From TrEMBL:
The organism's place on the tree of life at top rank: Bacteria
Organism of derivation: Streptomyces viridiviolaceus
Family matches, as Pfam families: Flavoprotein
Domain Flavoprotein: 14-131
Transmembrane segments: none
InterPro entries: Flavin_trans-like, Flavoprotein
Name assigned to this protein: Flavoprotein
PANTHER family on file: HOMO-OLIGOMERIC FLAVIN CONTAINING CYS DECARBOXYLASE FAMILY (PTHR14359), PHOSPHOPANTOTHENOYLCYSTEINE DECARBOXYLASE (PTHR14359:SF6)
Length: 180
């Protein structure tokens, strides 16, 4: 597939998907973004590609291949440059590696590059409460916020008193991009 501009001049949103159970519902974010007039391309961590979400449904919804591996030199770019990036769900591992400047996957390299280019980035963490207390995670949030990254509240997916789990706030990422 050759490099494509967003159709009809629409802004282009990269959605970076990490390996967390809530990733199964990433279609909700894609639909919400499309309803807000974004073109969407999905980049997934290699582990997320291993059954955390329905890749065929996501490709059908976006009309584009999911990216997870680097392209070879000379291969065309399947996505245009991003106007914004959403990382949802963002795992403990991804947040910490990103803050440390590690770029050992396409997803991480994309996030590091987006920050370097000044592309707006919104993040919805999906991190267990015990891990949000880890010093490395807290330091990573400080570093990334200092780089202009916008964060929603962490989602641990833990059952409440009634036994139900709170919904993952997919649209919150888009609100963060809008400055709300």
């Amino acid at each position: 597939m050759s490099e494509q501009a967003g159709s009809a001049g629409k802004p282009f949103l990269y959605v970076v998907v990490c390996a967390a159970g809530v990733a199964a519902d990433v279609g909700e974010l894609i639909t919400a973004a499309q309803e807000r007039d974004w073109e969407v391309g999905v980049i997934a961590t290699p582990v997320a590609m291993g059954g955390f979400f329905d890749t065929a449904a996501v490709e059908a919804r976006t009309g584009r291949p999911i990216r997870s591996a680097w392209r070879r030199p000379g291969d065309p770019r399947p996505f245009p440059p991003p106007d914004a990036v959403v990382v949802a769900p963002a795992t403990f591992n991804t947040v910490n590696k990103w803050a440390a400047g590690m770029a050992d996957t396409l997803a991480l390299a994309t996030l590091c590059e987006a920050c370097g280019l000044g592309v707006p980035v919104a993040v919805l963490p999906c991190v267990a409460n015990a891990l949000t207390a880890h010093p490395a995670y807290r330091e990573s949030l400080i570093r990334l916020r200092g780089m202009g990254v916008r964060f929603g509240e962490p989602y641990a997916g833990e059952a409440g008193e009634d036994g139900g789990r709170p919904a993952f706030a997919w649209e919150r990422a888009l609100d963060l991009l809008d400055g709300r």
